[in-house]
Protein 1
Amino acid sequence: MNKPVIAANWKMNMTKKTAGILLRKINESVSITSEVIIIPPFTLLDMAYEILDNKIKLGAQNCYWKKSGAFTGEISPQMLVDIGCKYVIIGHSERRHIFGESDALLHKKLIAAIDAGLTPIYCVGETLEEKRKGKREFVLNRQLDTINGISSLIVAYEPVWAIGTGVAADIATIRETIELIKLKLKEKSVDATVLYGGSVKPDNSKEIAKQHIIDGVLVGGASLDAESFLKIIDSFKR
Ligand code: PEP
């Protein structure tokens, strides 16, 4: 993907009322030079699809790997396509660490998402403990090995210690890690757009956007506020 990608992960936030206000503000004010993706909770996907022009794309935060059947509480990639999604987050650190999703399960989800016609936004990144032990590269290699039988996707480098903490990784670390990820994926003949995620805010997004090796950002907290999110989008007019 040549355009920068700016994805908003709303996590388990927003009601119909608050989401409606936010979506309308974004839809009215955004001037698009990037691929902007809104990723609300499942309950708000339908409403987001109705409100957003098709210049803004829709994604989901998770999916199961089966098409249909007796899997109470799960949502299939086909259901996401049916409701207008183009993207799906797979392997967010909250899914890995709170819900115990394994690399083997994530591999199945990646394949299922692609088979259904979705572009996965596959999250990778080390925990604080892994960082302290100097295991970043080892962990990333293991997580990237999950990408098998896939020729194209979006990868988000999201160091777990930077998510929701207000402390983003420094530019040198982001550059170095994204270079590493791109190299590894090139060796595997995977065409990847690689984003950074972790405490991206209007006051650091300009510096991030200046680095052309970074293909865009995955934004959590700051995407819940229209003004902040629109400023981040503006930073990427590069
Ligand atoms: C995220 O949840 O993917 C994320 C990057 O969150 P935040 O921007 O709040 O750190």
Protein 2
Amino acid sequence: MNNKGKLVVISAPSGCGKGTILKGLFDLDKEDNSLVLSISMTTRPPRATEQDGVDYFFVSRDQFEKLIDEDQFIEYAQFNGNYYGTPRSFIEKCISEGKTVFLEIEVQGAEKVRAKFPDCVSIFILPPSLEELEKRLRGRQTDDPKVIEKRLEIAPIEIARQNEFDYRVVNDDVDRAIDEIYNIIKNH
Ligand code: 5GP
């Protein structure tokens, strides 16, 4: 990894294995320790396994809207009825320290980040097929069936925007996808 800080934007429909891929990337980077993951803020309620300050900063709509007014987000969007946003101060600090910062965000947010930071690297992760995505989402059992249905409706809309990204990676084999993304980031 070189010493210049950079922003990496990763988008993928829910159920594409983003979490596993990110974990794999951070494992590969253990020695370099040059990658950091931005923790987003959301108004979505936490899932049973999620921790405040680790998976997200969980806040109320009022709190979120106050932070919007104070220009504290580099981007934010609404997804499935909830706000999600990237806090500004952490990103700016990491970039100034030469870190590579990952933003794991949906496609509207990715568009805003690309407009503000044209040097960012944007990567879209694709499922092997929509059938496979549906199988993974239904098997996950962390979301309410209604939420899963909604996510399955959103997925093709997001996939239709894949060409807006610098790179597209198919998660047909998770180790291969991790290597591909790691090489993209190193060589970009
Ligand atoms: P989930 O509810 O599954 O954690 O996230 C729903 C969607 O919101 C995912 O596509 C995720 O990448 C996206 N997301 C998470 N954090 C942010 C953020 O800070 N900004 C935007 N625009 N999207 C986000």
